[in-house]
Amino acid sequence: MASDIIHGLKRSRAPRSRDTIPVGEAGRVEAVMARLAQADPDPKAGLAVEDPFRLLVSVLLSAQSTGPTVARVSDALFAKAGTPEALLALGEDAILTIVRPVGLGPSKTRAILKLCAALASEFGGQVPRTAAELQRLPGIGRKSAEVTANFAFGETVIAVDTHVFRVSNRIPLAPGRTVDAVADGLAALVPDAYKDGAHVWLFRHGRDTCTARKPACPRCPVADLCTWPEKTA
Known about the structure:
With 233 residues, the protein is an all-alpha fold. The protein contains twelve helices and no strands. Helix content is 56%, strand content 0%. The longest helix has 18 residues, at 105-122.
């Protein structure tokens, strides 16, 4: 499941247009989140992250690759070296040999080495604990930083991947024309009590129910709160 969530990060696509659309009603957002929380009261069960560094590397490996492949390659890589310093010592050729199955091997190898160098030189080999600091690392954008901060350190930020972006615009919750606009809107509108699990709830809702094609509106737990004009009875 964690690898599925990591895999979902890379696929967000937002149309290029004006930055925002007017946000939805705060009360309805809270009602939607309460409904999703009631259906899934422990969203992070089984998703505990013991190694934030491994999560960061997995994020880098996930571009244009499947979750199971990323998991297998991550296992092989961290069996050889489990710290930024150890991966730097392992070297480019050895890393490339291991990560090649995920695709884009040379570029991902360089990204891993740049990440390791930055962690070693700027953070003493430790992964920073906040999304803001994580975004200072090479190759780590807002979505990746917020997933890491939320899953590894419990920071109450809401990462917006392709599923979260679609759900937020479709219901709508905090609609926006860009991923950043949706992320900012959700941060402002989702009550603090729901922020820790919000990414998982919205991710699963988009993956399992509010899908891109043929959304399962008849079994949607928030159908009565949704104003999407194309929803089915």
